[in-house]
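Pasting as-is:
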Amino acid sequence: MNAGHKLTDAEVRKIRNLRNNHGWKLRELSERFGVGESAVSAIARQKTWRHLE
């Protein structure tokens, strides 16, 4: 995991899709996208990156 990794808009949309529509686990998404599980959770729940649908 790279603490300095910046996600793109496309990656955020992909995270939301995989988590909310396909049931991927936080750990799986965290490893795939190189961010922490808490970041993935916040993205999926639209607590962060709110400007994206």
